[in-house]
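2024-03-11 09:14:02 DEBUG pipeline.ingest accepted 1 chain
2024-03-11 09:14:02 DEBUG pipeline.ingest length=85
2024-03-11 09:14:03 DEBUG pipeline.predict start
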Amino acid sequence: MAAKDKHVILLVSQWCATCPDADALWQKLQKEYGFKYEVLDVAQPEGRMWAKKLLIRAVPSTIIDGKLAFVGVPSEEEARRAIES
């Protein structure tokens, strides 16, 4: 699958101190690779649904193509590898 065909979802919360860093990283990579990118708050129904489905208990959490890829803020290198794989 090409990087542009990936779908990245970032689960966040209003109280999360590191979520803006994760969002900035994924926004930067989205501009470069062109994948679909969404930010979902776990306080909202769709964010809660993903957290429940994948048993996610911490934010930020990154879901790539429906699978939990990262909990916390990945390094740029880790994120690039995940998008390119």
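2024-03-11 09:14:41 DEBUG pipeline.report Helices lie at 19-33, 45-53, 76-84.
2024-03-11 09:14:41 DEBUG pipeline.predict end
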